[in-house]
Each structure stands twice: as C-alpha cells, then as structure tokens.
Amino acid sequence: MLAIQIKSPGNVEVIDLDMPQLRPGEVLIKIDYVGFCGSDLNTFRGKNLMAISPVIPGHEIGGTIEAIGDNVPEGVFTKGMNVTVNPYTACGKCSSCRKSRPNACEHNETLGVQRHGAMREYIAIPWEKVIPAPGISSRDCALIEPMSVGFHAVDRGAVTDIDTVMVIGCGMIGLGAILRAAMRGATVIATDLDDDKLELAKRLGATYTINSAKENIHEKLCDITAGYGPDVVVEAVGSPVTYVTAVEEVAFAGRVVCIGYSKSDVTFQTKLFVQKELDIRGSRNALPADFNAVIRYMQHGNCPVDLLISDIVTPDKAQEALQHWSDNPGKVFRILVKF
C-alpha cells in the first residue's frame, strides 16, 4: 500500500508498505483523507524536535471502517462507517493520567510525530481510539481533530458568556477556539496578520477583528473593552511576540491559555504575572469530550468546511503541497491528502 514519508527536512517520498495485520482489539481503517498540520510542516522544515525521523506523518484522519478485529465490543462499529481517530496515547500511570487528563500524558506518542502516522492507505487502530462520526463525510472527519484542540483550549480557559476572549492566531486551531468561545456566548476578538483569515473568523463567531500588521492591538483592545483588556487570551501562534502580547494585554485577574509552541525562548516582565494575579494555563491536544463537541457541531451542518480546506492533493503531490505551505504560511488553513 502507498504511504507518505518525510524522509528528511524538505524531502517527502511516496513509499510502499505492507498491509497492516489486524490484531485482536483493533479496527482496520481505510484512510480516505488525512490533513497536514502545523507539526507536519515543522517536521518538513526540520524544526520539530519531537518527531522521529524519517516519519510517516498524519494524525488528522478521515476514513471508513474496513474490518473489525476480534475482542472489539459488538454493535459499536460497522463496516463502512465514517470515523476519525484520537491520535494520542496515554500511559495510564503518570500524574496527568491519574488526574483524568490523558491528553497531557507525560509519555504521549502522537501519530505522525513520536510514532508513524496515518498518511497511508490503511491503518490498524485500537478500537478505543476510533471515533464514529455519523452524518459527517470522511473528508470532513479530517477536520475534527484540529478543531478539537481549539475547543479544548477554551475549556482550559473556563470561558463563559460573561467573558471577552481574544484569540491570537486564526489558523485551524485558533478558529476552533473562536468557534467554541462564541458557542459559549463569549464576546470574541480575533487577531491575525491576514485579512482573509480574519474574515473567516467573523463567519465562525468573532465579534471583533484586529489585523496586528496594520492596527495597534493595545489601542484597539482599549476601545473594545473600555480599557479593561480581554478576560481570556488564547495564544495559538507560538511566537515570542504573541506570548508577550497575551500577558501584556490580558485583563487584571485574567486567564492566558497557551497552545502554541515557541521555537525560541520567550522573555517576560514577570511582574505582570503577580500584579495581575494571572492564571497562565497550558493546553495540549484534546479530550474525548472535545472530539464529541466538534462532532455535534459539524453534524448541524453550519461549519463552512469548504473555506477551511485550502487544497486537496494526491500522495504524489505531498512534497509540492508542503513546500507551498512553507513558502506561504499565512495563506493556508488545511491541506488534505486524498488516498
């Protein structure tokens, strides 16, 4: 079967693999679509220190069930069912797992990063990680995982309808956070460098937008929030500038939720941590409840999925697609590979 491998920085190959052997407790999934995500882009660029090399990428999965192994509960899955996958592992023993937060498992291995992923024609997955998505096409199933990461960040920020929330970065994960915050009744401010992304943020529920390349963020926030600043800031970029902005602009007694990984050190005036009595919270991956919330949203048919998919390519075009994204990072939401 065909598979895509990032062999080394800037070098993607289509390789041939044996069909996976279906073991007891597993479900065989025919992969229809897999999304390239930011971690795959960083692997392609040689900047993902967590990724094995070479690696088969891919953890944003849309597929159909091909076969069901022994020792899988009856009545849960049927052949041909559209599914996505929870791509994270959990050891069950570390501090995070013991606190019912397996998404932050100390020993997590995400598909396509610390272990080979799903950019292949078929993959065998433990049944517990397979998530049925009735009423959602296998193409759109590939959008569930990245949106769930944004949903989880809003949950980490304990966002309610009395909050004003600023989301910095309107990529797929940031858009997921914007959507979830708006669904909870919050007033949402979207911040990005690209007007097209900000326009889409409005479609998904942002009340206000700030183009930080053209506008003064602090002045705009003062106008919007009567000088108080946003109650919650979600950092979904992962750069020193945006991390500092989050801490400087959040309201006193506010919450900062950090999703993005900065590739370099970040220097803070830590007095703001104390003076504002901030809650600074990391947000990693997603929980099953976040996946389920995204699925319920997408089942309603209101998600502008066609606007979220920048391109659909075949495996032989994977190198070209990643190079295009690397050259134009601000213009891509999601690139799907169709098998």
From TrEMBL:
<protein>
    <submittedName>
        <fullName>Zinc-binding alcohol dehydrogenase family protein</fullName>
    </submittedName>
</protein>
<keyword id="KW-0479">Metal-binding</keyword>
<dbReference type="InterPro" id="IPR011032">
    <property type="entry name" value="GroES-like_sf"/>
</dbReference>
<dbReference type="Pfam" id="PF00107">
    <property type="entry name" value="ADH_zinc_N"/>
</dbReference>
<dbReference type="InterPro" id="IPR050129">
    <property type="entry name" value="Zn_alcohol_dh"/>
</dbReference>
<dbReference type="InterPro" id="IPR002328">
    <property type="entry name" value="ADH_Zn_CS"/>
</dbReference>
<dbReference type="InterPro" id="IPR013154">
    <property type="entry name" value="ADH-like_N"/>
</dbReference>
<dbReference type="InterPro" id="IPR013149">
    <property type="entry name" value="ADH-like_C"/>
</dbReference>
<comment type="similarity">
    <text>Belongs to the zinc-containing alcohol dehydrogenase family.</text>
</comment>
<keyword id="KW-0862">Zinc</keyword>
<dbReference type="GO" id="GO:0008270">
    <property type="term" value="F:zinc ion binding"/>
</dbReference>
<keyword id="KW-0560">Oxidoreductase</keyword>
<dbReference type="InterPro" id="IPR036291">
    <property type="entry name" value="NAD(P)-bd_dom_sf"/>
</dbReference>
<dbReference type="GO" id="GO:0016491">
    <property type="term" value="F:oxidoreductase activity"/>
</dbReference>
<feature type="domain" description="Alcohol dehydrogenase-like C-terminal">
    <location>
        <begin position="173"/>
        <end position="298"/>
    </location>
</feature>
<feature type="domain" description="Alcohol dehydrogenase-like N-terminal">
    <location>
        <begin position="24"/>
        <end position="134"/>
    </location>
</feature>
<dbReference type="Pfam" id="PF08240">
    <property type="entry name" value="ADH_N"/>
</dbReference>
